Amino acid sequence: MSTPDTHTLEKELLEFLEGRTGTAWDADTDLFDAGGLSSLFAMQVVVHLEKTYAIAVRGADLRLDNFRTVRRMAELVARLQAPAGGQHG
Amino acid sequence: MAATVKCLVWDLDDTLWQGTLLEDGEVHLPEEVRKVVIELDSRGILQSVASRNDHEHAWARLEAFGLAEYFVLPEIGWGAKSESVKRIADRLNFALTTIAFVDDRPAERAEVAFHLPEVRCYPAEQVLALTDLAEFTPATSTVDSRRRRQMYQAGFRREAEREAAPGTDEEFLRSLDLRMRIGRATGEELSRVEELTLRTSQMNATGVHYPDAVLRELITDPRHEVLVVTLTDRFGPHGAVGVLLLERHPGLWHLKLLATSCRVVAYGAGATLLNWLADTAARSGVHLVADFRATERNRMMEIAYRFAGFEGLDEAPCPCADVLAPAPEDGGLQRLHLAPGPRVVSTVIDVAAPDLNTPEGGPATP
Description:
The complex is a heterodimer.
Chain A: H1 5-21, H2 39-53, H3 70-81
Chain B: E1 7-10, H1 21-24, H2 31-42, E2 46-52, H3 55-64, E3 75-77, H4 81-92, E4 99-103, H5 106-115, E5 120-123, H6 143-146, H7 148-164, H8 169-175, E6 178-184, H9 187-199, E7 202-204, H10 212-218, E8 224-233, E9 236-249, E10 252-261, H11 269-284, E11 287-293, H12 299-307, E12 311-312, E13 333-338, E14 349-352
Parallel strand pairs in B: 1-2, 1-4, 2-3, 4-5, 6-14, 10-11
Antiparallel strand pairs in B: 6-8, 7-10, 8-9, 9-10, 11-13, 12-13
């Protein structure tokens, strides 16, 4: 079951990206291959996500693949935001 | 010992020059004071101005004296001098403890000292003695310190152009004509690196400090490569911006130190270095293992490692690392591993580097 937040997250991330790049993006666009954004920009995105959503992206979660598309980013944020001790209704 | 002053902020009337511009109309610049300005500049100490005057009028005077170019971020106006000094420090990104202020009026010095107690204040009578003081005498003098002011001025022009530039950061970076040179270190270059370490908060990706003396010894060690990184663009040189320490093992290069200046993080210098190293290692048929210890400042470098494809040896073990002595058990030191393939080093920075497969000092003699 998908987290109800993911859609909102995607919307927020798309707005953030559009603000930073001056271009509108799709949630599924590969930002780096097709989109031509640099891995440097991806690093700034990591810092933005950590600050905005009070998460810590650690270790293996830091792979570039997790930041390739807005959808993947939203999934990562949703997963890291979920309380560690299991979810309640 | 008191820390070296990185920027001296001058009052103008009756401090830099004799006379009060608005009252006397004409002012006089003693030749000895000009020499102090030029000497401090050559030592790599930046200089600025905090003066109560009409900006255009006072700046025109400085230009007529041939001194205007020596002052960065001048604050000439009618606000409190403490605020001027604070703005200068903030824009330079210098701690207040590294700022000095010279003014003939005790009330101005008291105002600055009250609001900014860390700033060192000097009376005008001391102007000619400043160059004899320890805090105005940096330990080292390098090519980077001698042209530090020009490097900062180039930085301001670069920053202004960046703010005005349309399009993405990537497009702007491409327009900069960035050139990175990676070279085997000499003693002089290590002095530049040491200076960098002392002056700026580095992104030390290792979190392990290698003293200057240790690096100097390793220059001649055939197993080790000590590499110094410099960066230039169309605005001018950034100077020495990074250092790498690499130890060769059979089938493996061990990256023991990677540090870059925080000034060049925005250009992707750390990521570019990792991509260059990965590409070079791939062509040499070796794996890479990098030491990493998280600190408060090297988060961007951790991201750079991961985005370059490095993984923790604890997450994904590789037999190549068996040749390494175990990591010291003082906690926190991680080893990141990469089995590299050839790759594009950078789309925005042109990189020139020595062939690491050719021994230092040219081809080996039998």
